[in-house]
């Protein structure tokens, strides 16, 4: 993973513009972020490297990726969590991973793209339609978060996590492919970070779901500001 960051920042010369809250060094955190492109991954690695967690990253990953030679197999050995987007199918494996992290006091940043998939116009339209039927907020720059996984992760990590980090990632123009990013086709990536200590977070499942939804409403407004001003702050 650290190699992706080295290729992006030092060889391709991509500037990572970081704003928002400062992140403590070597803190265990549950990281949530919007998802537009594979380029999101080295952007998050850039923040992890600065916080001493580049070697401790773990990801929620779509199940088919584990069969991809190289990166897929590597993520499997790093205790990344492969999910099928069906909680009943994923529950046993996910809870086992959480138990392992707690038992062995494993240092981590556990990363989840709560929207469940990369943003596209078609997927956004479907998410908006679902939101309308469920009387949920209308979002225009991000999709509604999938809160069940958020609730389960908060519960499963227990006291082993110290904070939740909410990252908002923005690109100047169309979100790039990983190839374009690493071959020098991108000048800057913007990442805005918010840090929420565990003690300040709600404890109930419904309250946690509402909290995650509120972060995405804020994120939608933050993205609107970014597209208008070209920066998060």
How would you explain this protein's 3D organization?
The structure is a single chain. This protein is α/β, with parallel strands linked by helices and 233 residues long. Helix 4 (87-103) packs parallel to helix 6. The protein is globular. It has a 7-stranded mixed beta sheet, with helices on both faces. The mean pLDDT is 89. The protein is built from 8 helices and 7 strands; from the N terminus they run αββαβαβαβααβαβα.
Spell out the blueprint of helices and strands:
Layout (H helix, E strand, L loop, with lengths): L1 H10 L3 E6 L8 E5 L6 H11 L6 E6 L8 H7 L3 E3 L3 H17 L5 E5 L7 H13 L13 H11 L5 E9 L6 H5 L5 E10 L7 H25 L4
Query: What profile does the largest beta sheet have?
Result: 7 strands, mixed
Number of strands: 7
How much helix, percentage-wise, in residues? Answer: 40-55%
Total helical elements: 8
Q: What is the terminal separation in angstroms?
A: 28 Å
User: How much β-strand is present in the residues?
Assistant: 15-25%
Overall mean pLDDT stands at: 89
**Apparent shape:** globular
Strand order of the largest sheet: 1-7-6-2-5-3-4
The poorly predicted ranges are: none
> Which structural class is indicated by helix and strand composition?
alpha/beta
Give the SSE string.
HEEHEHEHEHHEHEH
Radius of gyration: 17 Å
